[in-house]
Every structure is written in structure tokens, then in C-alpha cells.
Amino acid sequence: MQDWLAPLSLAWRRALRSVQGRSGRRLACFDADGTLWSEDIGEAFLRWLIASGNLRNPPKGDLWEAYEERVRQDRSAGYTWAVQLMAGIPEADLFAWSRWFVAAWPNARPAMRGLIQGLEADGFEVWIVSASNRWTIRAASSLMGVPETRVIGIEVETRDGVLTDTVVHPVVCMAGKVAAIDKYLGARPVIACADSLGDLQMLEAAEVPLVVGRKDQQSASLLAIAADRNWPVHLF
User: What is the pTM of this model?
Assistant: First the structure.
């Protein structure tokens, strides 16, 4: 593997050594935004929903500014509110818009798709665990060759095929990512890959954590933790 991909190769080898001679599921859990692609597709899709007028019952005021303020105050609450804003949208429409949006998304990382393909070839069951809305990430999972059925994201209940504002718990953010993995998968990941402090608990829950990021937007806090714990770090 090329030198610049060495951290990915190291994490891969560590994961294989971890499961050698052991039976049971080989789970690999990947964050989505900032990890599998360089930008946040959940936020980009929300901006499009706001600008296009496709939100059914939007509150008054600058919704994007209100969203960013909520995230600054409480990341989990802000991400949840973004999904609750979609109440009233038919689920079929949300899926269709998401697939259209993903078709024009230029930010996927081929190296991450290669890592996923390699893990799958070695018997790993790959899941995407994201703090973005589940419908858009399910559509985007095709960029990485991951089945839509292997996506966990923030969601609300539907009624007669239409989204409500009733949140499905746990909220898939921070400690909620681990709670969601426990709920839906019933086992902890052998390897987890992510890029932000919002993923720290999921990284800690894995036998082999892998941190990724951007060279021009490094998460100093997470990188310091990774360095202290000897976690592989790959910067794009």
C-alpha cells in the first residue's frame, strides 16, 4: 500500500490480528460525514431543503442560523432538531430527493471505499453509523458499496409513510452511537473509523480505532487523543 495510506493499512492489519483464530461477527463501523466523504452531506442536504422550500412546517426565522446555534450549544440536540425539521415530508419523497442529491455529490473518498472493500473481502460486516439523517446516509451508502440496510442514523418515527417529529432513540451521536450499535447490532465493533470528537465513544468501543481527517482542518483534540493512545491516524 502507498506510504500515504499506511495508517489505513496499519488499522486493517491490527483488525485482522484482533480476530485471528476467533469466531463470531467481524463488525466494522464507519462514521460518514468527514470520514467516508470530505464534506457533511447531512448538512448540505438540510441547506438544500431549506433553500428549496421543501420543508413542510418550518419555524420562522433563519433556520440555518438556528441549526448552527443549536449544534454549538449541544451537538446531539442540534443534529436531532435538523431531522425533526423534516416532519411532514413523505418518506418516499425524502428518499427520492436524497438519491438525487447523492448522484451529484463529488466528495466521496476512494481510499475509504478501498478500505471497506478490503475489510469485506476479509469477512468483516461493514456498517455506517452517522449523526446525519438516516435517509440521506442510506442513499449515500452506495458511494461506498455498503448496503442501505447497514446504515444507522438519526431518525424520527413515520406515520402512514410520512415523517413525524417523534425522535427514535437512541440519538446516534456521541455516546448514542455506541448505544445504537448495542441496540441494532448487539455486538461491539472490531474496527471503527471516524473523524471527530462526536465519534470518540464509538472509537473507544472498538478494538481497533482509526482516526481520519483533513490536513487543512485537523481536529486537534481528537488527534491529541489518538497520538496519546497510539491510534492510527490518516489525514487526507
Answer: 0.95
